[in-house]
Amino acid sequence: MAGNFSFDQLKQAVSNGEIDTVLACIVDMQGRLAGKRFLAQYFVDSAHGETHGCNYLLAADIDMEPVPGYKAASWSKGYGDFVMKPDLSTLRRIPWLEKTALVICDVLDHHDHEDLAHSPRAILKKQVKRLQERGYIGYFASELEFYLFSETYDSARKKHWQGLDTASPYIGDYQIGITTKEEGVMRRLRNEMEAAGIPIENSKGEWGPGQEEINVRYAEALDMADRHVILKNGAKEIAESEGKAISFMAKYNYGLAGNSSHIHNSLWSADGKTPLFFDKNAEWTLSTLGQQWAAGQLKYAKEFTWFLAPYINSYKRFQAGTFAPTKIMWSEDNRTAGFRLCGEGTKGIRMECRIGGADLNPYLAFAALIAAGLAGVDEKLELQKPFVGDAYQASQLPEIPKTLRDATETLANSAMLKQAFGEDVVEHYVHTARWEQFEYDRRITDWELHRGFERY
């Protein structure tokens, strides 16, 4: 866990007038930053110890509507407080906001000050602890894709999200010339994230007009999840300050490529020096531990798909011939695969999970991948042979759940995740998923109106 700003440095910066605002943020179920803006001197004086927030923040939908039926928080329980405990190791300056610092907070129970089990950060911390107990470090990296628009969020809303102008008019995948037009935002994003302690390796054009990919340097799982959510929040703020808008929707347009969040993961020794997946004498140079880890992720992929694809829209991305996977299998350097082996023959060997969309919550996604990987190790699973060819056309391969409804039911029945996360935690997120489905099922879509207003 690493920011780029110590508490002593913050105190000095506040004293010098360089910082006047501190954002104290939790991460909600949707993977968004939520919290308070503190007058910096007050944060330094006392609020760095703890502050409080309403517990409905982890029992609300994406519209911030309190959702009935949660055990953890409800009207009958009065929607009381939880504790927001700043993790001062995550403290960092935020260059794109004037005189501002940010800290990620853990969410604690108001009575016993223990981690609130269903909070996303606590769920990941629990899985990281399981790794630590075995002498492992989990290194993760998420590749985020998004669309950049020559629109503001206000102008996009007035257009009802239709006919939007992308930052480039045609596909510029890897093309330097066309992506130069997008550098006003992208250059700031790379440099200002780096200055905020979030090292950016590179950015590139993706397989859609105005679509971008940004690659953050790998880190320990919890640190990487913190980087991921700050990056998403900051990208929108930077874009808005430039008169642009960014969307991380998994599939904003039927005819264009979706936005993914591919997740690279591997295990290393506790000191971070020895790669535990690399064995030059093993098949695919992937160690027995690495093969068992991958086999667990394959075996349980259907059960944890919801943590990689949490919305109705997420499942619109899984279309053949779009570089989004549709099948659960692994392959050596094959982008039609749900899981791809990368870095074969090197210390950087790792498994890339390609199922997740850019709309995922990284804490939940990383935790699910760790839980499945450890299940594979504990069960001593044997890794199947890699698939060769076009997975889209391979009818014999198991499929990724096609809908939110399917993924919700596999999650609800997952004994592995209930054991790893706790039954109440799984129940909490199953309820979240079912509410999302319920909200969609009772709405009238533009597609239905277009198709049926006159013709039915």
From TrEMBL:
This is Glutamine synthetase. Coiled coil: none annotated. The lineage of its organism: Bacteria, Pseudomonadati, Pseudomonadota, Alphaproteobacteria, Hyphomicrobiales. It holds the Pfam family Gln-synt_C. Its cofactor is Mg(2+). GO terms for biological process: biogenic amine catabolic process; biogenic amine metabolic process; glutamine biosynthetic process. Residues 120-456 form the GS catalytic domain. Belongs to the glutamine synthetase family. Keywords: ATP-binding, Ligase, Nitrogen fixation, Nucleotide-binding. It comes from the Bacteria. Catalyzes the ATP-dependent biosynthesis of glutamine from glutamate and ammonia. GO terms for molecular function: ATP binding; glutamine synthetase activity. Residues 17-113 form the GS beta-grasp domain. The keyword Ion transport does not apply. It comes from Rhizobium loti.
